[in-house]
Design a protein that fits this description.
The protein is mostly helical and about 180 residues long. About 75% of the residues lie in helices and about 0% in strands.
Length: about 180
């Protein structure tokens, strides 16, 4: 027994352990590689899903902004009618064409929102109806007033009331925020 330590079972014990390890497979390396591959694949999928969600949210926000812009342009029409130049039939025709175009755009956005974001369609329809009632009446009065003939007259002094339209817009925007 000079300097050697023997383990219980001797060399046979060692070869049994080796046989058990090789029979079970090459060891922990393929499992680790599989886990790393899975994590990388999951990370790529998660990144893709988050990017798609961001793109969808941005598209929806742009759709909402365009719909609100059409209403805002319609609400500005009484000012444009009131500030029309004196006796220019081409300008009258242009203004009426613009009003028709805005009504068509608002109808388009109403239909689009019914398809894309049905929860927003109702508040937007209320906003459009309110804006049409307010600005429509104001445009009728503006057409009945004489055209402005001086530069100082371009400042109308008192703005047209938008209280009901502003309240409907605030409600619509709140619903839009929830559905982004």
């Amino acid at each position: 027994m000079t300097g050697s330590i023997t383990r219980p079972g001797g060399p046979a014990w060692s070869s049994r352990r080796h046989r058990r390890r090789t029979a079970a497979g090459p060891g922990p390396r393929p499992t680790a590689a599989l886990i790393v591959s899975f994590i990388a694949l999951f990370g790529a999928f998660l990144t893709y899903a988050l990017n798609q969600r961001a793109v969808h949210r941005e598209h929806r926000a742009e759709t909402f902004a365009e719909a609100l812009t059409a209403v805002e342009e319609y609400l500005e029409m009484p000012y444009r009618v009131r500030r029309r130049p004196k006796s220019a039939s081409a300008v009258r025709q242009q203004l009426t064409d613009e009003v028709s175009g805005l009504l068509a755009r608002m109808a388009f956005h109403q239909a689009w929102l019914q398809i894309e974001a049905s929860a927003v369609a109702g508040p937007y329809a209320t906003l459009v109806a309110t804006a049409r009632a307010e600005a429509g009446a104001q445009m009728s009065l503006a057409w009945q007033q004489p055209p402005i003939s001086t530069d100082s007259g371009l400042n109308l002094g008192v703005p047209y009331s938008r209280d009901r339209s502003n309240a409907a817009r605030a409600t619509c925007i709140e619903v839009m925020r929830r559905h982004l």
